[in-house]
Design a protein that fits this description.
The complex is a heterodimer of chains A (361) and B (404). Helix content of chain A is 76%, strand content 0%. Chain A has 361 residues and is mostly helical. Chain A is globular and about 75 Å long. Chain A starts with a helix and ends with a helix. The N terminus of chain A is likely disordered. In chain B, the strands form 6 sheets. In chain B, strands 13, 14, 15, 16, 17, 18, 19, 20 and 21 form a 9-stranded antiparallel sheet that branches. In chain B, strands 6-3-11-8-9 form a 5-stranded mixed sheet, with helices on one face. Chain B is elongated, with a radius of gyration of 33 Å. The N terminus of chain B is likely disordered. Classes of the chains: A mainly alpha (361), B mainly beta (404). At the A-B interface, α6, α8, α11, α15 and α19 of A face β14, β15, β17, β18 and β20 of B.
Chain lengths: 361, 404
């Protein structure tokens, strides 16, 4: 290498020369410079390599060189960042590099798993085929759950067969089946029919819950509101119903009339608040009318009580969200009251609702 | 055979009965030598150093044994206690002898002419008390709660103000505003944007969503997904100083399409935002003795209060646990109920019943302790924890040290 050949290792002036070469030289010079900077080492030089790797303005080949130089440093933070970088840069060459790291049993498991997850970031069919091997490389169910989440980001048509087989396999533990349903939230919208099927039919309530949650994440202006309401009517578990109510928020229309009695009959607070959010959104869409009056009269007092109670921060925040969605005069009065809450996060949330009203005028 | 329940719950034979039987069985005295039966109960609880004058000899008994020496010899016995035990009583035949031992727990018998039976009775020291376990920054996987308000300026110089709610499964809901951007149909920008889970030992937000609306008076649609995780934690303050992640997406503004290839992002939280990133949590463990009023048998029970990063408190009711010297305590806390800062249950407003805090569990595996009554220290074991959609495990000693 240049440093060794010239007999200079960590002289600051020499490092400056290498950096200048990186900036001004051609791709071949830059490759030499990258390798020299990695060999010299030091925080500044590795910061330069990290920035180069993450900068889409550089050619992918040089970004990949920087990543491989960081991996060669064997410093764990740099190695993990570089592996993620290879995933971001993408391409078949980097998919092969990541697959090689994943299969290398001399390396730390953390590094090997990061490589598997990096294939998920690449997201191509080529990378997906490499990633499928990971289920044989790693035996730990905890790792499998993470692999599922990463593989779930691929287009559904690419992973559908794998997913159907996985969720149908009786020997797969419930926790992993639920993780598989959850992972589809990052896939493509053509997974929706399959998710609706699982959310309605799977025997495991955790799997149904995660499928319902994934429906909420994947849907955008869909027309499944009535079907989701019917599923909630027949669903015995409060946690599943909660996610079905959440999925209503992204439907083209919300069947408020059929949802209202269901939600008012809920005894689980989280399910009630989720339902109130969907009703609040329905109120905003429909404008003033019977639903708005009922919302103001029966639901808003309960939302105020929850928002100002000792309940979890999550439920208090979501109670405020429901009020912000409704946008009735009574809901704004409630937000005004809550904006004086002792919890600054809840108060700020309510204040933002009032500011939003002012902006809308 | 007489039996009774020993104070530490071990059913055993009454020591006086043992001493009496052994005495009768071993009553053999030769004219020139004599045998003493020396018993250590339970085995492994202690050892006895012995010295005789005739013959001149010495040794250490680590288990029940018989000593033989000449008639007229002096015999010194020194009773030693192994870690985790207390010498409860010493019997010479049927007579309690502990009070006659000197400050070194030693006694010189003799000149000896008759066989005798010595029984050293020990009890296992069982730790009880209050134990504070605190998440040790940097020594175990972090669990993060990110509920709160986030304000700032985007890369393209738009002010944003967003409120985030994270539920007990780590699922995220966001509502907010961005300068110049309005969602289709009006209302705030909002959605279920993903979740926080533990990936490769760190809390990682997997985010995604789609948007349809108006941006700077132009119709816009957008779709994207990404990840974010803490990159740098300040060792002094424990604050998350930098968050890194990946992002990819596409959008269409009016008729122009944009594609954002996978890219790495770095985000430096403002001081206000750092305050939202909560990761401190503690487990206040209580172990008490409980005596069965009918049998008099003593056992131990454990309860705990978990103080979560989001400020919520979860109370786990008492459950029976068992201590052994080798394996300590193992206990799983699940199905805890939500309580307020005073420890009162937060009742369901609909049915006025206590509410279980779902998907929240802590397990203590082989929690060993050293010390004495009233002054116990955790010396080993593992803690496994799962809440807010994330999980981790660590060494109990690190958690105990962090609380000091």
């Amino acid at each position: 290498m240049i440093a060794t050949r010239m007999g200079i290792s960590r002289d600051p002036v020499f490092s400056d020369s290498i950096r200048l070469l990186l900036e001004t030289g051609d791709d071949r010079d830059a490759t030499v410079a990258i390798r020299a900077l990695a060999q010299i080492g030091g925080e500044l030089n590795f910061r330069i390599l990290t920035d180069l790797m993450n900068n889409g303005g550089w050619p992918d080949s040089l970004r990949g060189e920087a990543a491989m130089a960081m991996i060669a440093s064997r410093e764990n933070t740099l190695v993990l960042a570089a592996i993620t970088g290879l995933g971001v840069i993408g391409g078949e060459e980097n998919a092969d590099r990541l697959a090689a790291i994943m299969h290398d049993d001399r390396l730390d498991d953390t590094v090997r798993l990061q490589a598997a997850l990096g294939l998920g970031i690449i997201g191509t069919e080529y990378a997906g085929r490499r990633m499928a091997d990971a289920f044989h490389v790693f035996e730990d169910p905890v790792v499998h759950a993470q692999l599922l989440e990463s593989l779930g980001r691929f287009p559904f048509e690419m992973i559908e067969t794998t997913w159907r087989n996985y969720l149908a396999a009786p020997q797969i533990p419930g926790e992993l089946r639920a993780a598989a349903a959850e992972a589809l939230a990052a896939s493509t919208s053509d997974a929706l029919p399959y998710l609706l099927e699982i959310a309605a039919m799977d025997e495991d309530p955790e799997v149904r819950e995660m499928a319902a949650w994934s429906i909420a994440s994947l849907s955008a202006n869909e027309n499944s509101g009535s079907r989701l309401a019917e599923m909630a009517r027949h669903e015995p578990e409060a946690d599943v119903r909660r996610r079905l109510y959440e999925a209503q928020l992204v439907q083209a229309s919300i069947p408020a009339d059929s949802l209202f009695p269901l939600i008012m009959a809920e005894t689980d607070v989280a399910a009630r608040v989720a339902g109130f959010n969907s009703l609040g959104d329905a109120v905003r869409r429909l404008g003033q009318g019977g639903l708005a009056q009922e919302f103001d009269r029966t639901i808003i007092p309960e939302l105020i009580e929850i928002a100002t109670s000792e309940e979890t921060l999550n439920l208090r925040m979501r109670a405020v969200f429901a009020l912000r969605r409704a946008q009735t005069d009574t809901s704004y009065q409630a937000l005004h009251e809550i904006s004086k809450s002792h919890d600054p996060r809840v108060a700020r949330n309510a204040m933002n609702g009032l500011l939003q009203r002012n902006n809308n005028r | 055979m007489k039996t009774q329940y020993h104070p530490n719950g071990i059913r055993t034979i009454h020591p006086l009965w043992v001493a009496g039987c052994i005495l009768m069985a071993s009553h053999v005295a030769s004219a020139q030598s004599v045998s003493w039966k020396v018993n250590i109960i339970p085995a492994g609880a202690g050892s006895i150093e012995w010295v005789t004058t005739s013959p001149v000899a010495s040794g250490v008994l680590n288990k029940s044994s018989t000593l033989k020496f000449n008639t007229g010899s002096m015999l010194t016995l020194k009773f030693k206690t192994n870690e985790g035990y207390t010498l409860n009583e010493v019997y010479k035949n049927l007579d309690p002898w502990l009070r006659f031992l000197d400050s070194n727990k030693s006694y010189r018998f003799g000149p000896v002419s008759n066989p005798h039976n010595i029984v050293a009775m020990y009890t296992l020291n069982i730790p009880t008390g209050d134990f504070a376990l605190e998440f040790p920054d940097g020594k175990a996987p972090m669990i993060a709660d990110i509920s709160g308000n986030y304000r700032g300026v985007t890369n393209d110089q738009r002010n944003y103000d967003a409120d985030v709610a994270m539920d007990e499964s780590g699922k995220l809901s966001v509502m907010g505003a961005v300068d110049g951007i309005e969602p289709h149909g009006g209302g705030p920008i909002q959605g279920n944007v993903g979740s926080v889970k533990t990936v490769n030992g760190a809390p990682t937000a997997s985010l995604g969503g789609s948007f349809r609306g108006i941006m700077d008076d132009e119709p816009v649609t957008a779709k994207g997904k990404g990840t974010a995780r803490p990159q740098t934690v300040n060792p002094s303050t424990g604050n998350i100083e930098e968050v890194t992640g990946t992002f990819a997406g596409n959008s269409k503004v009016a008729s122009t399409k944009y594609v954002e290839k996978p890219t790495t992002l770095s985000f430096i939280p403002s001081n206000d935002q750092k305050a939202n990133l909560s990761k401190s949590w503690t487990l206040d463990l209580k172990i008490v003795d409980v005596v069965d009023p009918r049998s008099g048998k003593k056992s131990q029970r454990a309860s705990a209060i978990l103080n979560l990063p989001d400020g919520q408190r979860v109370s786990f009711k008492e459950r029976k646990i068992r201590y052994t010297l080798k394996n300590g305590y193992s206990v799983a806390f699940t199905k805890g109920i939500k309580v307020d800062k005073f420890g009162n249950p937060i009742l369901n407003p609909i049915n006025q019943k206590p509410q279980i805090h779902k998907k929240c569990a802590v397990k203590l595996i082989k929690m060993t302790m050293t010390g004495t009554v009233g002054n116990w220290q955790v010396s080993g074991g593992t803690i496994h924890y799962r809440f807010l959609g994330q999980k981790g495990s660590g060494n109990l000693v690190d958690f105990a040290d962090a609380s000091r």
